[in-house]
Each structure stands twice: as structure tokens, then as C-alpha cells.
């Protein structure tokens, strides 16, 4: 009897260990994660037929309209000013190291030549061009990585099992709901994306929260899908904007509209993992083009946000919502250029850094690379700054002029004689430490 029970326990344990098999990132993935972290700055692009309504990418759900009426916009989508070379050049000029574009958002419209649905930019629009192909080719040409946003949630397809959003969108045939059909559709699309567009840096999923039922969890079958991504492209990172601590099989932890550890938008209270971190943020207040929203953050705010992300060991994925005509808004291009000018000078203190020894403070934050500790001081009322440090400081200088900055060793760190800091975007002091 005891033997039988023991056997049963052993059998149960082995089942448990099988089902809880740990994801072991391959050396290629580990390398890709490191490159991703080193990049620190990427540009997000939200573009689709929703851009034509000019009210953001949630228009279909927010307006609660008929999906076939909405879809008619595709037949008028003719973004004649789309020019991949101009986009990529503007993004590179910003100092960004990767681009993440919406291949298919929640409205279900595919921005590439997909075989899995007619509702795509080649088959359903007079424009008829595969913008993803053009962008992928241009990224390869200009040497910038391409990441792909892909929505799990869907507000138009008949087969998508309805979630907590868009239930008032009409025109869908509920008798055709089939998870199996929808899951198969997604995986075939993912296969196209990871086969026909060259090397993809990351798959960026979004929409899991449409089904985050507490009592009867919805099974998105992510394990199998993540494995498919890694099988198709062994260096492609998996990211999922589910607003939770990372799931097994993921390579990046995403935060939406807040830096890791902050939660001003109610989307980012999750604990911080040891994975590479990325915060996505809008440049105005919306992801997809919104005609009434000209409330762009200032260049100073954007630079400080990028620096603050780096100070927390995170990348910034900064969004631009292209216009229906295919151009990036002029204000966005200007912000990108100005950020690029700053990064051309101060990039060394951002790219390839880790979060610094001193956690973010009211005056700014710190980043570290090797034996250099960079202080990013945004504003300081006092004349001097106490830094709690356990390492030895050998020298201190202003990063841009090289002028020595006086400091004094005290208990538990140093006091740095910066003088008052005001009226600058970021006063960077470089400490050499031992
Ligand atoms: O693509 C952009 C957005 O369209 C998408 N993610 C970025 C990158 C996005 N928009 N809003 N959200 C994600 C937030 C989702 C909000 C939710 Fe909720 C809060 C989903 C679940 C809780 C409120 C309640 C909205 C749906 C249910």
C-alpha cells in the first residue's frame, strides 16, 4: 500500500515537473536580450486604417460601430506619402536602435500581404502595397532592427472568442466563434511574419488582458505560440503586454505608459523581473493618429523620460502615430531630431548602460557602464549632492566640458559639489569608480 502511494506520488511529481518545464533561453536568445538592453531606445509605430478616422487605434471599439461599416475605410486607404526610407531615416536620426510596428492591431486589419485574411493592406485597399515589406527592406538597408506588434485580441473576426472589450461592435456572426480556428489563424500569420520579412528582433504581443478572467482563466496557449516564434526565428525575442509579471517563455518585460515600479496609468503595477525591461510611451496622448491631440510632450520631457528609463535599467519604446497620408507628423519628426541631437552628444551615458548604483532621486537618476557612473541631474536646488555609494570614487567631471567637479568622501558615500542645477535638460557628471 505504502509502495503504491509512493509510486503514485512519484508519478504525480513527474507530471507536475513535465507541465512546469522551464523555458531555457538559448545562447542566441541570451545574446539578443543583451543587444536589446544595450539599445535603450526604440520607436513604436501605430498605423492602420484606424489612422483615417483620426481618433486613435481604439476607434472601432470606442465608437461601438458595425465592423463592416468600419472596414469600408480600407477601400479608401491610399497613404500616397508613405516612404519607408523617410521613416527609417527620421527614426535613425533620433538615435533609436529599433522600430516596432503594428502589423495587426485589435481592429483585425493586417498591414502586410497576408494569405490568412482578405482584410489586409494589399487586398483590401487601393494602395495595394505591402508596407511591411518596404519597411523591413529599408530597416535591413539602414541597419536598424525591426520588431513586430501583433494583437491577440480581435474586434472584427467571427471566430475570435469575445472578451471584455468591444462586445458592442456589431456585425460579427457569433455562431462562428471558434478558438481553434482563431488560434490557427494567428499562428499562420505569425509564421508569415517570421518567414517573409527577414530577421525580426521581437514579437510584441498585446491583448491578453481581453481575457484575464480571474475565476476561469482563458487559455491563450501561449507556450506553443512562443515556441513557434523561437522555432521560426531562434533569435527573435518574445514580449507580451499583459500588464503582469512575465510568463514562462518570454524574453522581455513590458510596462505601458509608466516606468518600471511606477503606476500612474493603472496599467503597470506589476513586480519587476530580471528580464530586459521596456516601457512604451506615447509622444502625445494617443498611439494611433488622433487629429485633436496636438499635446506633444516637450523634447526636454522626452529626453528626461528616456534618461529616467535608462536609470531604471529599462528601454524606452516611444510611439509615433503616422498620418493617414503615410507621413510621420511634422511635430513628431522634430522631436525625434532633437532627441537625436542630444543622444549624439550624450549617447555614451545611455546606450549599453545599466541602472546606476543610486536609485532614482528627486534630482534625477544614475546609469553605469563599466567603471563609469553617470549622474543625470535634471534639477538641483542645493549647491551639493550627497550620493550613497559603496564603491570608491576616483574622479568626477562634467561629461560635456570635462571640467573637474569637486567632491568629498563622507560616511557612506560622497558629497559632490555640483552647484545649483537649473535651466538644463540634463547635467551629466561622470564619476570614475573603483
Ligand atoms: O497598442 C496600444 C494600445 O492600443 C493598447 N496597447 C498599446 C501599446 C492598449 N490600449 N489600452 N490598453 C492597451 C489598455 C488596456 C486597458 C485595459 Fe481594460 C484595462 C484592459 C484591461 C484593463 C478597461 C477594462 C479596458 C478593458 C478592460
Considering the chains and any ligands shown, give keywords for the structure.
434 residues; alpha/beta; TIM Barrel; Immunoglobulin-like; 2 domains; 8-stranded parallel sheet; 5-stranded antiparallel sheet; 16 strands; 29% helix; binds ligand H79
- Spell out the CATH superfamily of the largest domain: Glycosidases
Number of domains: 2
Shape: globular
Oligomer: single chain
Name the poorly predicted regions. Answer: 10-19
**Please, how many helices?**
11
Radius of gyration, in Å, reads 24 Å
CATH class of the largest domain: Alpha Beta
The average pLDDT value, as a whole number, equals 95
- Structural class comes to alpha/beta
**Helix percent band:** 25-40%
Which architecture of the largest domain does the CATH hierarchy give at level 2? Alpha-Beta Barrel
Bound molecules: ligand H79
CATH fold label of the largest domain: TIM Barrel
Q: Give the neighbour order of strands across the main sheet.
A: 5-4-3-2-1-8-7-6
Beta fraction of the residues? 15-25%
**Which sheet architecture does the biggest sheet show?**
8 strands, parallel
Distance between the termini: 64 Å
Amino acid at each position: 500500500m505504502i509502495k503504491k502511494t509512493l509510486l503514485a506520488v512519484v508519478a504525480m511529481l513527474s507530471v507536475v515537473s513535465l507541465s512546469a518545464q522551464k523555458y531555457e533561453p538559448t545562447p542566441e536568445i541570451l545574446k539578443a536580450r543583451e543587444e536589446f538592453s544595450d539599445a535603450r531606445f526604440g520607436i513604436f509605430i501605430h498605423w492602420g486604417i484606424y489612422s483615417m478616422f483620426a481618433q486613435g487605434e481604439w476607434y472601432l471599439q470606442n465608437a461601438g460601430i458595425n465592423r463592416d461599416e468600419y472596414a469600408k475605410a480600407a477601400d479608401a486607404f491610399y497613404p500616397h506619402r508613405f516612404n519607408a526610407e523617410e521613416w527609417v531615416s527620421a527614426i535613425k536620426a533620433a538615435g533609436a536602435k529599433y522600430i516596432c510596428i503594428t502589423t495587426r492591431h485589435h481592429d483585425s486589419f493586417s498591414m502586410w500581404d497576408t494569405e490568412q485574411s482578405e482584410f489586409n493592406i494589399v487586398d483590401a485597399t487601393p494602395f495595394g502595397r505591402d508596407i511591411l515589406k518596404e519597411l523591413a527592406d529599408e530597416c535591413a538597408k539602414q541597419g536598424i532592427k525591426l520588431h513586430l506588434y501583433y494583437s491577440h485580441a480581435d474586434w472584427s473576426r467571427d471566430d475570435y472568442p469575445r472578451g471584455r472589450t468591444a462586445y458592442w461592435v456589431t456585425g460579427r456572426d457569433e455562431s462562428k466563434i471558434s478558438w481553434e480556428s482563431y488560434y490557427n489563424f494567428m499562428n499562420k500569420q505569425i509564421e508569415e511574419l517570421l518567414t517573409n520579412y527577414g530577421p525580426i528582433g521581437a514579437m510584441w504581443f498585446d491583448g491578453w488582458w481581453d481575457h484575464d478572467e480571474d475565476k476561469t482563466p482563458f487559455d491563450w496557449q501561449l507556450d506553443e505560440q512562443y515556441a513557434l516564434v523561437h522555432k521560426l526565428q531562434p533569435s527573435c525575442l518574445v514580449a507580451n503586454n499583459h500588464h503582469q509579471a512575465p510568463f514562462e517563455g518570454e524574453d522581455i518585460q513590458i510596462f505601458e505608459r509608466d516606468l518600471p515600479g511606477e503606476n500612474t496609468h493603472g496599467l503597470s503595477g506589476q513586480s519587476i523581473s530580471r528580464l530586459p525591461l521596456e516601457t512604451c510611451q506615447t509622444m502625445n496622448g494617443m498611439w494611433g493618429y488622433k487629429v485633436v491631440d496636438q499635446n506633444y510632450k516637450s523634447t526636454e520631457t522626452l529626453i528626461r523620460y528616456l534618461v529616467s528609463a535608462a536609470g531604471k535599467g529599462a528601454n524606452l519604446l516611444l510611439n509615433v502615430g503616422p498620418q493617414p497620408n503615410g507621413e510621420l507628423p511634422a511635430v513628431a519628426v522634430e522631436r525625434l531630431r532633437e532627441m537625436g541631437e542630444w543622444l549624439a552628444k550624450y549617447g555614451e551615458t545611455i546606450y549599453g548602460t545599466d541602472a546606476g548604483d543610486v536609485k532614482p532621486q528627486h534630482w534625477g537618476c544614475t546609469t553605469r557602464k563599466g567603471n563609469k557612473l553617470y549622474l543625470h541631474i535634471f534639477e538641483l536646488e542645493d549647491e551639493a549632492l550627497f550620493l550613497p555609494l559603496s564603491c570608491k570614487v576616483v574622479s568626477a567631471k562634467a561629461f560635456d566640458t570635462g571640467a573637474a567637479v569637486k567632491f568629498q568622501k563622507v560616511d557612506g558615500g560622497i558629497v559632490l559639489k555640483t552647484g545649483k542645477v537649473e535651466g538644463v535638460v540634463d547635467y551629466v557628471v561622470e564619476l570614475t569608480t573603483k
